[in-house]
Every structure is written in C-alpha cells, then in structure tokens.
Amino acid sequence: MATREIFDGRVESGLLLLPTLLVSVVFLYYPTALAVRTSLFDSSFGRSDEFVGLENYVTLLTDPSYHASVLLSVLFAAVVVAGVIAVSLYLTFLIHEVETGQDLYLISVIWPYALPPAVGALVFLFIAHPTLGVLTGPIEALGVDVDWFNDGPQAFVVVAVAAIWKQIGYNVIFMIAAMNNVPDTLTETAALDGVGRLRRLVSVYVPIMTPTLFFLVVINTIYAFFSTFAFVDLLTSGGPSNATNILIFDLYQEAFSFFNFGVASAKSVVLFVVVGALMYVQFRVTDEYSYYGA
C-alpha cells in the first residue's frame, strides 16, 4: 500500500520548492526587474544606455496617442471578457441540457482553444476576410458592407470576435464542471415551479457558479490584455488608424519596430500596473458577491 511522506523540515521543503523558485526567478522576477530598470534609461538599439529617471513615464503621461491606446485596451478587454463569459455560459447551458451527443458538442466548442493564437488568427482571417471570407457573403446579404481593413470600428469588432472565439473553449471547460455540480434538487424544484430554461440559468445556476465565473473573469482579463497580440498582429497590425492598437501591440512596436527599449519597458510597467489594478478590483468584487455555499 502506497504511503504519502510529509516533509516538515525547512531544508526538505526548500529543496522541493527549488525548481519552481528557479523557474520563477529566471523567467518572471528577473525579466520584471530588468524591465523596470530599463524603463529608467534612454535605451535604443546600437547606442549605450543613458539614465533618464522618470522621463520615459513623463513622455507617456503627455502622449495623447498612448492615452488613446490605454482607453482602447480597457474597452477591448471589457468587450472580450463580457463576450467570452456570456457566450460561453450560454453554450455551456445548452450542452448541459443535451442528453444525446453531449461529448461531441463539447469537443466542437473546445477545439478552437487547442489552436495556437497565431493559427487561430489565420483561421479567422479566412473566415472573415472582406473578399475571401466564408462569412462575408452572408453578412453583406444583410446590407452590411464588410471592409474592416479600412474601417476602424469594423476592425475592432473583428479582432474582438476572434479573441472571444478563441477563448470560449477554455471557459466552457470550467463552466461545465461548475454546472454539473449544481444539485439536481434545485433544477427539479425550478422545473416544478414552472421556471423557464433561461430564467433557470440566470436565477439558479449563475449564483451557485459565481466562484468559477469570477475566476474566469480574472483569467479572461489577463488574456485580453496579454494574449491577444497575435490577433492584432496578423489581422490588422494595429490599424486602421490605430483602431486596434492595444497596449500589448503598442509596446511591441515601440520595442521591435522603433527600437525604443526604454519607452517600451515603461509601457510594459504601465500595462502591468493597469492589469494589477483591475485584478485588485475584481478580487474585491469576488469576495463580496461570490457564493460558497452554506
């Protein structure tokens, strides 16, 4: 019979944590410290660094185009998070209600998440391309002119929809597990009281699923700010007229197109602070409104 050995000494515990600590220091803490340090220098490609203090941050504070990028990123994150949660919750409910072929429906919903972001962006490019896309004809048949290469609002919508489409599978995995843990007695009682399906979803399932939903809100927020770079890069390259120039793409251009590493590092620090502040607000809301049972 297998036994579990518990290490209560500091040396043994430290040795077990050492690999994790090394990975965190090398790939997380050291790059973060280096980014903060670089943000205090005038650092460009092929030129020695010059200490400038907070000058890079002052530049960002006085740059209207950067202010627009910050607001655009917050709006983009809000749209992506709300869209992912709403669509994923509804699809999860439909799958949960199905008795035949549930596994097939679940796989069909999850598979886009298995694609790398760059591949997902290319797939969506062929789906929604203004001239070649399979959705272009049906949309134009509704009287909508598709030209998101040149129309800013359309480009924003296309990138947001692509980001939502890619993240639905991840959310459904957690939501289906949470929905399966809802007591059958509640579902039966709601059915006996004549509660409709949609009302049952909103009034019975959602309150019990709040811990999972708030966890997904946090994860989706991080995803919207940091993991949607490939969609912007491959679909719109930040255009047209900076309509999709969100923070993660903006700092990439600053670093690898303009080679202003100091300003790019300052932008990365600001991005970290913005996302950290949003995480703090979301965790406070989570503590107040999450339902953890009696």
What would you note in describing this structure?
The chain has 294 residues and is mainly α. It has one domain: MetI-like fold, CATH 1.10.3720.10. Helices cover 73% and strands 1% of the residues. The protein contains 13 helices and two strands; from the N terminus they run αββαααααααααααα. It has a two-stranded antiparallel sheet.
Concise structural overview:
With 294 residues, the protein is mainly α. Helix content is 73%, strand content 1%.
Strand arrangement, major sheet? 1-2
Helix/strand/pairing category:
mainly alpha
Can you name the CATH architecture?
Orthogonal Bundle
Number of helices: 13
Coarse morphology: globular
The radius of gyration computed from the alpha-carbon positions, rounded to a whole number of angstroms, is: 23 Å
Provide the number of structural domains: 1
Uncertain ranges: none
C-alpha end-to-end distance: 37 Å
Q: Name the CATH superfamily classification.
A: MetI-like
Helix content bin: over 70%
- Please provide the count of β strands: 2
Largest sheet report: 2 strands, antiparallel
Order of helices and strands: HEEHHHHHHHHHHHH
Percent of residues in β-strands: under 5%
Mean pLDDT score: 87
CATH class: Mainly Alpha
CATH topology type: MetI-like fold
